[in-house]
Amino acid sequence: MSELVTFGETMLRLTPPRGHRLSRVDNLDVHVGGAESNVAVGAANLGVEAAWMSLLPDTELGERIAYALRGEGVEPLVTWTDTGRVGTYYFERGGMPRGRDVVYDRDGAPIREATPESVAVDRVRDADVFFTTGITPALSDQLIETTASLLETASDAGATTAFDVNYREKLWTPAAARSTLSDLFPSVDVLFAAERDARDVLGFDGDPETVARDLADAYGFETVVITLGEEGALALHDGTATSRGTYPTDTVDPLGSGDAFASGFLAERLDGASITEALDYGAATAALKRTVEGDMARVSRDEVRALVENGGRTDIER
Question: Which InterPro entries has this protein been placed in (predicted)?
């Protein structure tokens, strides 16, 4: 049994050295990353018994992903396949005015054909929290059905279901996302949504509290968390709205910050913390993750606790 079970695709991320262009690069750094596995890793490093569920090809690259997650304390609930390939993506860092760029190469990944029967559905039933994101149903029609089934299974078993909208414009249109996600939401207890996704994808506008209340009224969520970028986050729970800001950070790698926030929030809620405390730990986990290369929040509970208790100071002796 795991306290947290997540489901989704994990890929290999290939990154040129800082300041280099993909079209000119001679070497690439390799990281393992995927929204759902990132949440599992972040939570595991904060003391949660976490598992990640997916399909991978039975190849050296598939094992590379499982090896990385095991090393972070996450149990890989992998169904190994004889066909398919590991998806990859390329992340080119770029300062202003050029900005960063992400190039995906994920066709042929076996998770696109995942059915409820092909994954460890019993572990979903036994979990305290089941988590996935909008990236997963965006990958294929089959995954729309499978995601819906797993959310319903978890909900029927009494697990808390948590879902991050995590819209990716390279995967689907706002209209397609809204249609699909609206059908999934009745089985979701805790919703995470960036303010821009709530507005541009889900069609809810207004100040953050209004958006959270409208979402809760429309779909019956127990908790709605609206992330606000540099302004922090707002959570609505039991009719009460709570806001928290961010912690100052020197950004080494921004990817995975939202996943880190979700992992910190869920870890604290699993530990019986209040919504206010969960927001604080989510923000601290996200801030610390940005100081670490790669997609995963390789940060400890002691580091997160110290950041929260010291009000964002970084010159802390432990």
Answer: Carb_kinase_PfkB-like, Carboh/pur_kinase_PfkB_CS, KDG_KDGal_kin_Halo, PfkB_dom, Ribo/fructo_kinase, Ribokinase-like
Q: Is residue 11 part of a domain?
A: no
Q: pLDDT, tens digit, for every residue of 147-181?
A: 999 999 999 999 999 999 999 999 999 999 999 99
Instruction: Enumerate residue ranges in the chain where pLDDT < 50.
Output: 316-318
CA 96 – CA 31 distance, rounded (Å): 24
Instruction: Give the per-residue pLDDT at 316.
Output: 42
- Measure the CA–CA gap between 44 and 67, rounded to whole angstroms: 15
Task: Answer whether residue 140 is part of any domain.
Answer: yes
Closest listed residue to residue 51, CA positions, set 10, 11, 2, 9:
2
CB-based contact 2:123 (threshold 8 Å): yes
Assigned domain for 14 exists = no
DSSP secondary structure of 225-252? EEE-GGG-EEEEETTEEEEE-------S
Q: What is the pLDDT of residue 17?
A: 84
Cβ atoms of residues 224 and 198 within 8 Å: no
Helix (H, G, I), strand (E, B) or coil at 162: strand
- Domain interval for residue 126: 35-84+112-309
Q: Domain count of the chain? A: 1
Active site residues: 259
